[in-house]
Write a structure and sequence with these properties.
Chain B: It comes from Tateyamaria armeniaca. The structure holds two protein chains of two kinds. Chain A is mostly helical. Chain A has one domain. Chain A contains three helices and no strands. Chain B has one domain. Helices cover 65% and strands 0% of the residues of chain B. The longest helix of chain B is centred in the last third of the chain and has 40 residues. The chains are: A mainly alpha, B mainly alpha. Chains A and B meet through helix 1 and helix 2 of A and helix 2, helix 3, helix 4 and helix 5 of B.
């Protein structure tokens, strides 16, 4: 470029010393081609590029809006499903509690009957036993009186006394009552 | 300029050669008619092709989940759309294609100009003046069509004390008419200065002793120029939006 432009510089320097920007001879050329270029750019932009980009941006905005709406929808559905699940869970829990309560009541009833029966049996047995014990006690008292009379008679005899059985019996009986 | 360069100890600087408009076909120095295909034509055409590739080809799939190219196109669209909406309000949206045209053209032309050996169309005052004055006339006509004579309220600062208003009106009118000049010279000046400085540093690289410094300088300034290219496109566009806002809502 160096040699080329040097030559050009000399030529241009003759036509317009100093800045090539001030070379009025080239203004017409520049202005003509500039206007042509601007018109071309304007038509390319306003007819093709800008409507297309505007459409792309609008479409994207639409897609995003739709996606957000769809996401909200799905979220609502998920919440609904969760609520249904919670409800089913609560129902199941209530049902389980009801069944448990029923069973408990039934068992309690059975148990009460069994306890009553057992109490009655126990009471019968206790009465029987008490009777037997009373009999035994009575027998024992009699035996004690007998033994005491015999023992008293023997003791009196051993001491050299002489006592009839009737007197000893009355004395022992009086003693035992005292 | 050439003499200065010659006097610099054999160093040759031609920082402005890159801006010379010359026919693409034929000899250097051939006459440049208005219809001649020049380097301006070629680089303007490349800018159009770049925009076509950036905004049309990348979006051809119309993917809901964008790829890399489509993301860039959408980013550009969103950036300028939001700028127009924020600055001019809802009623400025219908001028969005025009502003997008300006932004995309300036951005692509600036970046294409950063390719080594390329020609920077936006470094020419003829180009930026058409853009700047185009915006100025469009906005002024639009202001009168939309608001009628009350568009002149733009120059009558009703919030200022009455004695000050005529003075302010004169200042406002001057600043209004300076707008297209600053608008176009800002862009051309930035692009031209940056590229010329790049060439000056590249010229210093001819001297072996300072070549490393010069090359590092070229790299640093190139980085800066990448920033400037984007920022100038942004500045031009947002000022256009501000002027458009003045036309749509002229009352302070």
């Amino acid at each position: 470029m160096a040699t080329d432009t040097n030559a050009a510089a000399e030529v241009a320097a003759g036509a317009a010393p100093g800045m090539p920007q001030l070379d009025v001879g080239t203004f017409g050329n520049q202005i003509f081609w500039l206007l042509l270029a601007l018109v071309a750019i304007y038509f390319v932009l306003s007819r093709v590029a800008l409507p297309r980009i505007a459409a792309i941006l609008a479409e994207r905005q639409g897609t995003i809006t739709n996606d957000i709406a769809a996401a909200e929808d799905l979220k609502a559905k998920a919440e609904e499903a969760e609520a249904a699940y919670e409800k089913a869970l609560a129902d199941a829990r209530a049902e389980a509690q009801r069944i448990a309560g029923e069973t408990k009541a039934k068992i309690q009833a059975d148990l009460d009957v069994a306890i009553e029966k057992a109490d009655a049996q126990i009471a019968a047995k206790a009465a029987e036993s008490e009777k037997a014990i009373a009999e035994i006690r009575e027998g024992a008292m009699e035996a004690v009186a007998e033994v005491a009379k015999d023992t008293a008679g023997e003791i009196v005899a051993a001491m050299g006394g002489k006592a009839d059985a009737k007197t000893i019996g009355a004395a022992v009986s009086a003693r035992m009552k005292g | 300029m050439a003499d200065e360069a010659k006097s610099g100890g054999g160093l040759e600087f031609h920082p402005m050669d890159q801006f010379i408009v010359k026919p693409w076909f034929g000899e250097v120095g051939d006459p440049v008619h208005w219809y001649t295909i020049t380097n301006v034509t070629v680089w303007l055409a490349l800018a159009v092709l770049a925009i076509l590739g950036l905004m049309v080809l990348t979006t051809s799939k119309r993917a809901v989940v964008p790829g890399k190219g489509q993301s860039i196109a959408e980013l550009m669209y969103g950036f300028v759309y939001k700028m127009v909406e924020d600055v001019t309000g809802k009623d400025g949206i219908k001028y969005f294609p025009y502003i997008m045209t300006l932004f995309m053209f300036i951005l692509c032309a600036n970046f294409l100009g950063l390719i080594p050996m390329s020609f920077t169309t936006t470094s020419h005052i003829a180009v930026t003046a058409i853009l700047g004055f185009g915006v100025f006339f469009a906005v002024t006509i639009l202001g009168f069509v939309k608001n009628g004579a009350s568009f002149l309220g733009l120059f009558w600062v009703s919030s200022a004390p009455l004695p000050l208003r005529p003075v302010l009106a004169i200042i406002e009118i001057i600043s209004y008419f300076v707008r297209p000049v600053s608008h176009s010279i800002r862009l051309a000046g930035n692009m031209m200065a940056g590229h010329a400085v790049l060439k000056v540093f590249a010229g210093f690289a001819q001297v072996a002793a300072i070549a490393p410094v010069a090359i590092i300088g070229v790299m640093a300034i190139y980085g800066l120029e990448v920033l400037v290219s984007a920022i100038q496109a942004y500045v031009f566009t947002i000022l256009t939006c501000v002027y458009l806002k003045d036309a749509l809502h002229p009352h302070h």
